């Protein structure tokens, strides 16, 4: 009823290849965008911005980057956290060396640094696959975090060894740093995330995305039909690391405000990888669903006892939280091993034929 | 047991209820909200729990004994961070509207909330930790690290190991075994300055967060270097690891000295006799017979208002937690008198913390005589630079082995000024308190 596709005819190839062959999908997206751009900013308070909306968007962006590499091109990576760190440190150095630089330019440029580093550590992918490649990227993870700690030039020789975000303005409004308001930062992150998502949807649907998928499904076959494996794999590493680097710059500059090297440790890589796995490999939507589950759910659960006045101490609530989130993740994976995006796809299929399943 | 558990669970719940039903109700009852960013879970839970218990129990005791501070109840609450910076930032956002003070409890979280303090106008209380230059109250208007900074601690340790004559360190070798994190790196600039001035060799040896429990490489290096003294800036599992390794490599324990966060009874208990002779500097002294501790026993523990672990009552960390809550309470008291109000807000508390006067007489009055060195803060001095004692592990507990030591402010002050200025410049525009003429 709600998802009736009857009567939506395609009369050209162009229409058949449209982003939304079903009208309802476009309406749904419009609704979500309306929610994100108008309704949420109008109703959310600072806590919701800072603890829910901004982190979900940034984590979704990081996982989008990893998903391009792992989900579309089939190259498993455990170095996401470190590549985010490269983006963050590059952005910090750019801002402190060129204080006049616009923050948008700095963030866009910092992605190139992580793309370069990502490509360098992606070189082993030409020879090794699967778990072996994961170990090679693990080396990147450990090496880069070690570098963030030891190379004092990266953090301008601060005695604390951490990087601090100064206040930066755009059109006279503080966007980054302690003086920026949460709503401004939210819109900034939202616009960046929307642009990159739009770019990612198109690149994964097009020629390059198809090359990646061919490599993922069977690289020997891909090579036989004339795909240059080196170009395909390295381009996946470059695009993925670029997005991950931008996510890292946003992570520190638009959200955390300060970062120590240990922040980019393996836990961060795992967290992003979990978002990819739970959201759904090879899906754009999945990153958002996964980020909501992994990042937002614990925050929401921790607010429950307080809201209802349940007699639970904050430490006990934290223990319960870990258990509930863990059980939810296992539950969802049993329900649908291919992730939340597939769950939505099945629900959508069912909705289309509902109420007359055959 | 079951009954106690229920009580233990009910107490925070009652506090949570009070906060859940909004500020309006709280104000009607005349209460002051103090939320602590606690860490009773996560990798550092063992060290965090006694401190958090001490802080909580002092507040409960005041509510039970005196009905709060000058008749205003303290609504004390916790927000669990698990020592995780991400959760810490989340807790800060959650509590900043209601709590009149933020206690970040990790150098990482402190670094994140420090720049926001000027904007949100909530005092940050980081007793004995955080960023040492925070002592400069003109630059860090909203941050407080009483009673002493890490640099004070480092200076006092050097004074004690040289037996008051720093010249005697000439030609010696001092190793700093430190956690490779902002916290562990804190004393390095000061120790370097000392090494240059007094001609001793200074060698920092970092211990990565992942190698805390296995420090064989570091201790091999120490054995090769044959230092005259090893100082330690350790935390959590690193303390146990270091003392165990030191015992294993037969390093003389009396040449091994820790900072105050390396003086946890729980850590040392697991080492026991092997750690005998190990010393740590501490600005707090456990004194279980003092009036305040006896009142806590009477009103809180015996009355079953809260639960703590067995033997924890006598621990350095538990009693240090009590002292930490006292800083907040004395700040509130000072603000109440100055502003002639009952329910103080964050801005008034800032004034109170800036005007702490904890002399001998006052400490005696609140029953904490001899538990902490007297100190006072001012608009330019947010640390107080109180003295500290050297504690020694005798195989079963920490005992005092020195008189009250004082840090060498001639060495520290110039460094505080330059580092504070560096921070302010890097974070420009950074407001500086021009009204403070001290």
Automatic annotation (TrEMBL), chain A:
Q: What is any Pfam family matched here? A: BPD_transp_2
Name of the protein in its database record: Branched-chain amino acid ABC transporter permease
Cellular compartments annotated: Cell membrane
Q: Which GO terms describe its cellular component?
A: plasma membrane
Q: Does the keyword Transmembrane apply?
A: yes
Q: Where are the transmembrane segments?
A: 26-43, 49-69, 76-95, 101-123, 130-148, 184-203, 234-255, 261-281, 288-308, 320-341
For this protein, the record's InterPro entries field holds: ABC_transp_permease (IPR001851), LivM-like (IPR043428)
Single GO MF annotation = branched-chain amino acid transmembrane transporter activity
The keyword Membrane appears for this protein: yes
**The organism's place on the tree of life at top rank:** Bacteria
> Main subcellular localization, coarse class?
membrane
Keywords for the protein's UniProt record, in alphabetical order: Cell membrane, Membrane, Transmembrane, Transmembrane helix
From TrEMBL, chain B:
Name the InterPro entries for this protein: Leu-bd, Peripla_BP_I
Q: Which residue ranges does the record assign to the Leucine-binding protein domain?
A: 32-395
Keyword field: Signal
Q: Does the keyword Nucleotide-binding apply?
A: no
Its name, as the record gives it, is: ABC transporter permease
Q: Which residues form the signal peptide?
A: 1-28
Q: Which family does it belong to?
A: Belongs to the leucine-binding protein family.
**Cross-referenced PANTHER family:** BLR6548 PROTEIN
Q: What is the native source organism of this protein?
A: Borborobacter arsenicus
